[in-house]
TrEMBL record:
Family: Belongs to the D-isomer specific 2-hydroxyacid dehydrogenase family.
CDD domains: GDH (cd05301)
D-isomer specific 2-hydroxyacid dehydrogenase catalytic domain location: 6-320
Keywords, sorted A to Z: Oxidoreductase
Pfam families in UniProt: 2-Hacid_dh (PF00389), 2-Hacid_dh_C (PF02826)
Entry protein name: D-glycerate dehydrogenase
Entries under PROSITE patterns matching the protein: D_2_HYDROXYACID_DH_1, D_2_HYDROXYACID_DH_3
Domain D-isomer specific 2-hydroxyacid dehydrogenase NAD-binding: start-end pairs: 112-289
Amino acid sequence: MTRPFVFITRKISDNVVSMLEQHFLVEMWCEEEEVIPRELLMEKAKQADALLTMLTDKIDEELLTQSPYLKVVANLAVGYDNIDLEAAKKNNVTVTNTPDVLTDTTADLTFSLLTATARRIPEAIDYIKDDQWKSWSPYMLAGSDIHHKTIGIVGLGNIGQAVAKRATGFDMEILYYNRSRKQDIESELGVKYVSFEDLLNRSDFVVCMTPLSKETEGMFNREVFKQMKDTAIFINSSRGGVVNEEDLFKALESGEIKAAGLDVFQNEPIGADHPLLTLDQVVALPHIGSSSLETRTEMMELAARNIKQVLNGGKALTPVHI
Ligand code: NAP
């Protein structure tokens, strides 16, 4: 009997590949930087029992309906906005993600981005490297304080809660908005539930940690930025699609908000000519929220274990539910 075929859409750890090879026939798109061409992905998916995918792969209805053997798509991310869940369900394909293992790493990066943006750290690094530091001066590269300020977290899920824990260490007041209130954890975390409008009006830092969905797409638009303080700093390390980038540019350029720290963009990768990069008050990162060696390895292992479970007839460890 031939062994089930697993196709991996980007180069991942040799150890994880070996772990899969003990049970399955495994092939991998061996590029680290380049997305697999759509045609090749379609061709491999047609033969595959399992796909280990990246957030850059579009797993849509066309692919799912043309992949007769496919049983599981294990996405190397907690977000799954690149996968058509309805089509997966219709085609009896289990979808898995990598929650929890990346929570603290992404929260660390989100809080670092907040700190870097508030205290203008990238500008300060360039200042020295460009040989501009000629003397000490009272307001040289003066940024905004973080301690004792108010942080508003939109989407207090796993990562949002881990961001709240970090904010506690900075003696911040912590507000949050979710569709459903999380009363059971409020006192332990020291967070207050408020309406979206209240959060926008009161926060010095507005941090978005929601998934990208039909509901959150373009949620941060001009009207929303107008409701923030003109000293507010907007941080997004969820998904670029939650922001209307043209509106964000206008809000920053016209001084409606003060600064933005962005780990994610509407169309990734962005080029150096992206309008937001022309603004000194924008700190931009290339979607590295969960990118630590330890966490990326754990994510790969979890994705592989999900594949093993499903192909061996068991239940996925971290299935995505519709
Ligand atoms: P999670 O535990 O599912 O938390 C998501 C939170 O968002 C939930 O509390 C949810 O609460 C809330 N939410 C959903 N829809 C909302 C809406 N319309 N308005 C307000 N709140 C809403 O997920 P997580 O593990 O924290 O991850 C969150 C997201 O971060 C992921 O989906 C992913 O896109 C992104 N992420 C990015 C990186 C990176 O590299 N930058 C890394 C990891 C994750 P309710 O359902 O009650 O509204």
